[in-house]
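step 4 of 6: structure.
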Amino acid sequence: MEPRQGMTEEERFRRATACRPALLAVILAMTQDFQESEDLVQETMLEVFKSVGSFDDSRDFLRWAKGVARKVVLRHWAARKRIPQTMEAEALQTLAESLAEEGEEPALWEDERRRLQECLERLSERSRRLFLLRYGQNLKGPALAEASGFNVNSLRTTLLRIRVFLRDCLRSGPAAMEEGGA
Amino acid sequence: MNLDFERLLAAYLDEKVNPEELARLANWVQTDPALRKRFQEEMRLAVLSREVARERLALPNTETGHPIPSSQFQAQSSEPHHLKPARGAAGSRFHFAFRVGWRRTTDGAAGARLQESHKVLAVDWWGRRLAWALAACLALALGVASLWMNRPPELGSLSAAAGQAELLRKNQIYPVLAGQVVREGDRLRTGSNGTLRLLLTREKAELVMAPGTELLIENSGEGARPNLRWGKITGAVPPQEPGRPLVVQATRARLEVVGTQFDLAAREAGAWLRVREGKVRLVRLADESSVMVKAGEFAAVEDGLPFEIRRQEANRPAALPVKLDYAHPRQEGDGDWSWDGLRLEQKRVSRHPFLPENFGTSKSPIGVLEFPAVQGGSIEMEAAIVVRETLARIEADASRAFSVGFRFRQGDWLYQARYGTLPEGRAHLVLDADLLGRGLPPVKMASAEAAAQWLPVGEPWRLRVQALAAAPGWLRIRMKAWAASTAEPAQWMLDHGMEAPAGIDRAGLQTTSAAAVFTDWKINAVENFEP
């Protein structure tokens, strides 16, 4: 298919790069693992770059790229011969597809990321440490409990509390949040 | 709020859920627009959190302005399996705990929502699984409470980790991660390229472990008591509560830190301390005597070294503008220099013809580098020397040039120098070094590069100095540039019974003087110990 006029190749590439966080979310929904998701995002980006030159601008670019991301995950599952059970695979795909309809505003991602940095400062030292171990070091379960010093049983509650705090902070702004609030 | 959905979502995000639960979650997301929005929101937050956390771990620590480049610290790719004990390590790495206490809540909307959320979640859980939960709690309480009670207390955490490093806990070895809790009894080790940044919880102190360091975290009863087994740490300690200093243990010594920045190194033979800011009491364990080491000072506890405070004047970059004042020639030596720590001025320049009388004892204040050194310790530094001006010319017999290098000692000084003819526009360099407190030969100078050449006027000439300590002590290197004629060394050699090289005609040689400056001091390497 010949690409429609109106967007240069460079603009398409820039657009593809800007949708990386959204693709990461889709892949994460299927893998539930940051590290694996980031590897697969790289593969997805390669696929997207390969095809972006011939992309028809009349189509929804992000929706198409998210479709590519889902296919990359399915291919990955097939390659490693550890395909989830049917019910599980279907559920994971359903969750990933639910993210397909989400619109994309690269500037909004950037803005939220900046705000989240500030919100992080409002967390208590202990919570911040846990946050960094969970999201930065990609630890879960007993490994996270061991590294963080939290009781295994209280981890879920504490992580939930941190997420609620950060979500509220993103909505209302860091200034509205009490310091050390989670 | 669909609490069942929220519970499942939390489990999906942080753990693994079984296929049935996953299907239930997916069904909710697919059929309920509000829950779908919640799911989208949560996934967005997860991705943002990941990006922000990765960014945070890769960022240098700007809070302390620590001298060790924070850029060394990189975010590490760390998977859960990295936390597994090293192969062959025995026992379990899992800890089960039972905690009893009040949950701290926040004020405001977020706190209220949380409380509500927890409350209803709890009711939901207990309502449906009361019997199971009670039984499980009892079993947990009875079975693992003792484990929890015996669990060593948390004393700090790692705020950054780079390169090879490990944590030894209860005979199990773990790789280290930024954010990891450090407990009493933990041993932190860095490999040859590893660095760790440790934050002590109560003391709010930051300790940076250099490569090749082991730090044992002991409990003082009131907080952490780091024990430097070997290697080097750099500490940034905020003011401590009165009467409760941070105590750091090292070989044969103890530090009592009330608030300061310091460097501490330990080896088998002893401990070395340098204080950057504030003051630190250094206690010698053998007799409990102590010295108070202040900013800019250092001291050591080691056999063969005096237990005293020394000041370090080294490692100052010196751009040295020189002012020459020919109106006041002196007879005593090679000039009158003033040095305020940053700026050097040469006010008078010697022009007299009998330099050799003072040649062996004249000591320039220029460029003194002083380091404590263990036996075999060495220092290598570089500087540039610029000869600004010469004051006389060789007039006669310049064609019969000679050049001779030799070493000699006088008093506590070891000299190695080379002298030669002095054609127009040239001066020469003298390097010397000594080691206080010990007799000669304390220092071997490998200064061939530095002393073997004549220096052209006006052009920077780079020199390299290496000194090796043959015994423990304070290694001092002085560098100075001064004028000499061919006559003086030759005369001096003859006066001291040394044979002058063939071709010297003392009568035909003239005296000259020159002014020279050092610039761009740079210390390349100090092996074994850098205070």
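step 5 of 6: annotate
 - Chain A touches chain B through 71 residues (CB under 8 Å).
 - The mean pLDDT of chain A is 82.
step 6 of 6: archive
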